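Quick start: what a row looks like.
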Amino acid sequence: MIVRNTELLRGTNRQVNSKNWSSTRLLLKDDDMGFSFHETILYPNTETKIWYKNHLEAVYCIEGVGEVEEADGLKHSIRPGIIYALDKHDKHILRAFSKMRMICVFNPALVGPETHDPEGVYPLLTTGEKNVSK
């Protein structure tokens, strides 16, 4: 059984930060669950262009207000209780109008240090690799 406390992971190598967000990675590839599980804090008044061409992702909002915009311009309001799933490796823009707290699941699992490259993509890493886009 794996039991972890989000608060105890902050400030460790399981917390990855960018200018728009901070992601605490509770489960990663080396946990052998077949997916990774993260709590991500989006900073207020930010916009992040994302394209998970190597991963599928489901995102559940538990705090804050924002929107996700699809590549065709269709916008969806995001608030607590809303889930969206990027089941087709969808390009999208995520906007946080306030501080947002999101629970994210990735398949395949992230290794840990991944950050978005200039296209908004997380590289497909194997254990031990470093993200060269960081």
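That is the whole record. The longest strand covers residues 56-63. Strands lie at 15-17, 21-27, 36-42, 46-51, 56-63, 66-70, 75-78, 83-86, 91-96, 100-107.
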